[in-house]
Amino acid sequence: MAEHDLTALMAAQLDRHLVFPLLEFLQERQLYSEPEFLEAKIHLLSGTNMVDYAMDIHKSLDGTDDVPEDMVKRCAEVVSRLRSLEEAAAPLVAFLQNLQLV
């Protein structure tokens, strides 16, 4: 069945976030081994801000609580950027939450 799988061809044309449901479906069907799915998910997550999820997958793949240092650094960068964006958007959010002004 795996020889007829077109997911790799379709995934190249889709947004990374749309590929996850496809991988989950294939994982439930057990077309590939579990480590192959985990490696594919880590590769897919490498270009996103979903670093915590990638760290969890890496832990389950290796069976340890250790994660690579580059993932830890990337996580810190993502959280820092999120906080700075929240601070920058705070005045707008406060304005929109004030029913008297809106």
TrEMBL record:
<keyword id="KW-0396">Initiation factor</keyword>
<keyword id="KW-0963">Cytoplasm</keyword>
<protein>
    <recommendedName>
        <fullName>Eukaryotic translation initiation factor 3 subunit E N-terminal domain-containing protein</fullName>
    </recommendedName>
</protein>
<feature type="domain" description="Eukaryotic translation initiation factor 3 subunit E N-terminal">
    <location>
        <begin position="5"/>
        <end position="100"/>
    </location>
</feature>
<dbReference type="Pfam" id="PF09440">
    <property type="entry name" value="eIF3_N"/>
</dbReference>
<dbReference type="GO" id="GO:0005852">
    <property type="term" value="C:eukaryotic translation initiation factor 3 complex"/>
</dbReference>
<dbReference type="InterPro" id="IPR019010">
    <property type="entry name" value="eIF3e_N"/>
</dbReference>
<dbReference type="GO" id="GO:0003743">
    <property type="term" value="F:translation initiation factor activity"/>
</dbReference>
<keyword id="KW-0648">Protein biosynthesis</keyword>
<dbReference type="InterPro" id="IPR016650">
    <property type="entry name" value="eIF3e"/>
</dbReference>
